[in-house]
Amino acid sequence: MDGSWSIGKRRFKIQKDFLAEVAQVINVGMAGPMMGIIQYGDEPVTEISLRTYSTSRDVKSAIDKIVQKGGLSNVGE
């Protein structure tokens, strides 16, 4: 997800809401699909590793806690 300052707080929240909805729709679970999230800006940061959470509810809770890191949109690094 884009955590750079160029997207602003509103669009950052839109990304978080979208990812939380995806987690619900795909029904994250140990026997089913897993979900990971990397936030990029000045430096990429792994926010959620693939095997960290075993339910959609846990993933949604973790997404809610993600804070925008800021920086430039350095997607290629």
From TrEMBL:
Identify the domain of life. Answer: Eukaryota
SUPFAM superfamilies to which the protein is assigned, alphabetical: vWA-like
Q: Which residues form a coiled coil?
A: none
- Gene3D superfamilies to which the protein is assigned, alphabetical: von Willebrand factor, type A domain
Where in the numbering of this chain does the VWFA domain appear?
A: 1-77
Q: What is this protein called?
A: VWFA domain-containing protein
- What does the record give as the organism's lineage? Eukaryota, Metazoa, Chordata, Craniata, Vertebrata
